[in-house]
Amino acid sequence: MTISENIFELIKALSPSEKGYIKKLSSFHARTGRNQYIRLFDAIEKQEVYDEKELARKLKEEPFTKNFSVAKNYLYNYILKGLESYHKNVRAEIRGYLNQIEILENKNLGSHCEKLLEKARRLAIKYELYEMLEEVIEWEIILMSKKSSGEKDNKNLIAAYAELFEIRQKQGDTLRYKKIYSLVHSRMSHRGQVRTQEETKEFQELIEPGMDGAPDPGGNFKAKLFWLLTNSDYYLNVNDFEKSYQYSISSLRLWDENKHMIKTNLFPFFGCLINKGTCELKFRNYSELDKTLSKINEYSVRFQPENNYLRLSLLNFKFYASIFSGQQDKALEVATEIEKHLTVVRVQPEDNKARQLFHFGMSCLYIGIGDYKSANKYVNIVLNEYDSDLRGDLFCFAHILSIIIHYELGNRELLEYRVKSTYRLLLKRRKLYKVESLLLHFIKDTISDISTEEEQHRAFQALRDKMVEATVSNPFEEVALDYFDFVSWLESKIENKSFREITRRKFLKATGKNSLTASNA
Questions:
Q1: Better pLDDT: 109 or 511
Q2: Which of 305, 309, 308, 312 is nearest to 89 (CA)?
């Protein structure tokens, strides 16, 4: 990428608070004239598409326009330095100590380094930043070697090297479990939950090497965490929600014992909470789900995660939790929050999975409230604006939702084509399972023969019974209901009630409430 593309993308990726900090920082350089570059910052920020000719025209009186390339490089680096200062964290603090130690040692001021090394060591041990602790120990060895004069110093050197070997062993343990976790999580986010025994076996082959037994109970936090999180993810994906839930509870117990680690490990922390909440949603344990959502809200406010993908993932979870608990009004509120967020941040390619999941959820939500035109708008976004392999599971289910939407809109002339093309697609991708097949055959072969309300009632009842039988007898088939509640949709047709009424009634029953006027809380 060119420096022009880089500076434009960087400015567009800044949050409002980051922009405010950069501009405030520039005011300190007013006397030197360096804040003139903020005028370039402001001009770029206002552009929707980068246009250097327009910038040159607007800023023609500024001296830096004589060498635009230098100005853009200066501004890019200035922003990065500002962001480094804004996002102070433990790693940056230790890195600062290590930089100061190097400067002092180069000036032969080794005695000045001792307190800095002590501070860096304490932080690196507390947060298990072993790669940085290695650097600390290596500096300690350099200083010891320079003043080494006797047996005691030799013993200290031997002890330091022994500590290095121990640290590398801990790093190896952590990396072993983290690697397996990354492979499992990547497979899960790309393909969704397993639907066949063959896929389960494929998944098992990912985790079997290196997962044969828990880490040493007295070992390091991160090794234990990634072992627990890998197991939680694995069992979630093979539809063993009981085991996944137990591993989620164990991982959160570990976090409770190591609260100081949360700030430096936000992704795995929120991952544990999302896994726990997903299981609670599956169990319809809404009272516990409320507690999990409250904890997500609490820590989101406390730590204000800057990573856009993480923020979208947390919002998506709250969004889906509302949809599948029959709380469509609450889901609409969260959807508004997500869409507002998407308008103020520059979405990067790595965020597309989270965006695609949101748009798929929006099509489910609008089917649920009977707004089929809006549902069609969002399902077409999933089908047409994303790579079909980004989330292959969502792409395939979006075709199924499209058929339901066109059925509800009365577009009978499109249904036959849609059913045939979807059937071919699912067959080609080996995604034609029982639930999908039942629905496709019903719309293709049965609907056209229905002529009375009574026949329609019987047909939908028969399809509903077949779907229930398929999902109850085979947990792999039940996965389909995690994407869209086909059974509740069919029950809405049988009872001649809205989809919203059916899902809301189930939510109230699960929470022990008995009135549709009960609180949405």
A1: 109
A2: 305
pLDDT confidence band for 190 (50 / 70 / 90):
confident
How many Å apart are CA 366 and CA 370, to the nearest integer?
Answer: 6
- Give the whole-angstrom CA distance, residue 200 versus residue 465: 27
pLDDT, average across residues 46-64:
85
What's the token pair of residue 441? 């055959």
Q: 196: which DSSP letter?
A: S
Distance CA 237, CA 235 (A): 5
Six-digit token string for 509: 């029953």
**What separation in angstroms does the CA of 419 have from each of 364, 401, 426, 462?**
19, 11, 11, 20
CA neighbours within 13 Å on the CB side: how many for 440? 22
Q: Which CB contacts under 8 angstroms, 24+ apart, belong to 8-13?
A: 8/44, 8/47, 8/50, 9/346, 10/76, 10/79, 10/80, 11/41, 11/44, 11/45, 11/79, 12/45, 12/346, 13/308, 13/345, 13/346, 13/348
Candidates 121, 128, 82, 80; CA nearest to 98 is 121
Q: What is the pTM of this model?
A: 0.86
CA–CA gap between residue 406 and residue 408 (Å, rounded): 5
In contact, 183 and 199? CB cutoff 8 Å:
no
Determine contact, residues 194/237, Cβ cutoff 8 Å: yes
Across the range 152-177, mean pLDDT stands at 89
Q: Report the pLDDT averaged over residues 281-292.
A: 94
Of residues 261 and 62, more confidence is placed in 261
Q: Which residues contact 15 (CB under 8 A, 6 or more apart)?
A: 306, 345
- Using only the alpha carbons of the chain, give its radius of gyration: 28
Instruction: Compute the distance between CA of residue 189 and CA of residue 313 in angstroms, rounded to an integer.
Output: 11
